[in-house]
Specification:
single chain, 2 domains, 10 helices, 37% helix, molybdate ion binding, ModA/WtpA, ABC transport system periplasmic binding component
Length: 247
């Protein structure tokens, strides 16, 4: 088992948690892990096309469950939760506006990830739907002007070490970005950016799910390590919330 290299395909938002987690796992077990990150929907397509994968960590439940239903996964389990957050360019004209007022301002360029390819985009469109249900016309207007700049097949490549929302705003490609809330602490010290919490009645619960694709002991060891206390500790340190079966 010590000579086995495990391929871990993981949602890009998990990078800050999984890089130290994988290093700890290798030190603890002697097992090498090739961790590859990207939009979970595109990673699922790679698996379905035959790409090797021992464990798949998705930013939603739909992709692992599809692999399970297709007979490509041995088992699945929720392992972390997240929420959405708005990142905005600081400006005297905008700094007094709350999250909904910012999203409602047509002159501000709104960027998102790509629905279908990336669960972050799917969750964002769920947010638009909630806004539309309360304020008819407003949510649809947001969805209509949103630019899907990252997380797709032909999207811009965010440089390594950069957070998508901050990078897009600093490249003057957007004024606003809807992304994951676990990036909030890393962005809180940026003088040129604001991070705004989306309140609970509006926010979307983003449940992450793990799929084990290989049946061998090495794959099972990695799967269990992510779910156990040490692995969960790395997720908490990176800003993720514990997974709960409660809706």
């Amino acid at each position: 088992m010590a000579n086995t290299t495990l391929t871990l395909l993981a949602a890009g938002s998990l990078r800050s948690a999984f890089l130290p987690l994988v290093a700890h796992f290798r030190q603890h077990t002697g097992l090498a892990v090739d961790a590859q990150f990207g939009p979970a929907g595109l990673l699922r397509e790679r698996i379905e096309a035959g790409s090797p994968c021992a464990v798949f960590a998705s930013a939603n439940a739909a992709h692992p469950q599809a692999l399970l239903q297709a007979g490509l996964a041995q088992e699945c389990q929720g392992f972390a939760s997240n929420q959405l957050m708005l990142t905005a360019r600081r400006s005297p004209d905008n700094d007094g506006l709350d999250w909904l007022a910012l999203l409602s301002t047509p002159r501000l360029r709104l960027a998102t990830s790509t629905p279908g390819c990336d669960p972050s985009g799917d969750y964002t469109w769920q947010l638009f739907a909630r806004i539309e249900a309360r304020y008819p016309g407003l949510g649809n207007a947001m969805a209509g002007r949103a630019q899907q700049l990252v997380g797709g097949r032909d999207s811009l490549s965010v440089p390594p070490g950069e957070i998508a929302g901050a990078w897009l705003i600093r490249q003057n490609l957007a004024d606003l970005f809807i992304g994951y809330a676990h990036y909030g602490p890393a962005l809180a010290t940026c003088d040129d950016l604001r991070t705004l919490t989306i309140p609970a009645p509006w926010n979307i619960r983003c449940d992450y799910q793990l799929a084990r694709l290989r049946a061998d002991p090495a794959a099972l060891a990695l799967y269990r390590f992510i779910l156990d206390d040490v692995g969960q500790g790395y997720l908490r340190q990176a800003g993720f919330m514990p997974f709960s079966d409660a809706a």
